[in-house]
Amino acid sequence: MDLNQYPGENYANPRTCFFHVLFKASSLAFYILSALFIDNFVIIFVVTVLLSALDFWVVKNVSGRILVGLRWWNEINDLGESVWKFESLDQESLSRLNKKDSWLFWWTLYLTAVAWFILGIFSLIRFQADYCLIIGVCLTLSVANIIGFTKCRKDAKKQIQQFASQTIASQVSSTLQSAFSVV
Questions:
Q1: Residue 44 CA from chain centroid, whole number
Q2: Which residues are paired to 71 by β-bridges?
Q3: Residue 14 φ then ψ, to 5°
Q4: Where does the chain cross the membrane (predicted)?
Q5: Distance between CA atoms of 105 and 59, rounded to whole angstroms?
Q6: pTM of the predicted model as reported, rounded to 2 decimal places
Q7: CA separation for the pair 106, 164 (Å, rounded)
Q8: Which one of 20, 92, 161, 172 is least enclosed by Cβ atoms within 10 Å?
Q9: Are 127 and 40 in contact (CB under 8 A)?
Q10: Which residues lie below 8 Å from residue 97, measured CB to CB, with a gap of 6+?
């Protein structure tokens, strides 16, 4: 998707977009640069995972709501089963969301996971199993957001389709009732 596809449209939420990218870039940049300048694995682990956890939280609780109108969480019910919960804006509000904001959200969500995966391959090639632990945690947080928001988007589309079907059925039913009430 080309960003110039939406002429004249700017980011509606530039601050949110900035922080959405900032936390992703900071965890990746710290991990890459720390390997060059810091020789302490514990510091690299703690700071990288902390930055990645901040990214996870910002995406899940702030930028997901503002940029794409979606929110997800997972609960454990009384039977000990995992239950996914989804929230989304209504159809009209979803259609008014800024396309550039949405584009930035989805592409950075996926590209971050790809970057962690590639860094994981490099760590395996260099036989750095301890660094694979850092990457495993960061990749898990990235993939959790991908899965959560993808399921949430599918659920939102399903709700919109159900609402449309119910509206059409209601219109047909009221039209038939009014037609037969005249007779």
A1: 25
A2: 87
A3: -60, -35
A4: 28-58, 103-125, 131-150
A5: 9
A6: 0.74
A7: 26
A8: 92
A9: no
A10: 12, 67, 68, 69, 89
Record the tokens describing residue 114, joined without a space. 């790809």
Longest C-alpha distance within the chain, in Å? 87
Look at 18-27, 88-97, 158-167 and tell me which has the smallest mean pLDDT.
158-167
Among left, alpha and beta (phi > 0; psi -120 to 50; other), residue 76 is beta
pLDDT value for 76: 86
DSSP secondary structure letters along 110-177: HHHHHHHHHHHHHHHHTT-HHHHHHHHHHHHHHHHHHHHHHHHHHHHHHHHHHHHHHHHHHHHHHHHH
Query: What is the percent of the chain where pLDDT is above 90?
Result: 30
Lowest mean pLDDT among 10-19, 33-42, 111-120: 10-19
Going by C-alpha positions, the residue among 50, 47, 86 that lies closest to residue 68 is 86
Per DSSP, what are the bridge partners of residue 85? 73
**Average pLDDT of 165-180?**
55
Compute the residue count for the chain. Answer: 183
Contact 104, 20 (CB under 8 A): yes
Residue 76 phi/psi, 5-degree rounding, is -105, 120
The dihedrals phi and psi of 88, each to the nearest 5 degrees, come to -150, 160
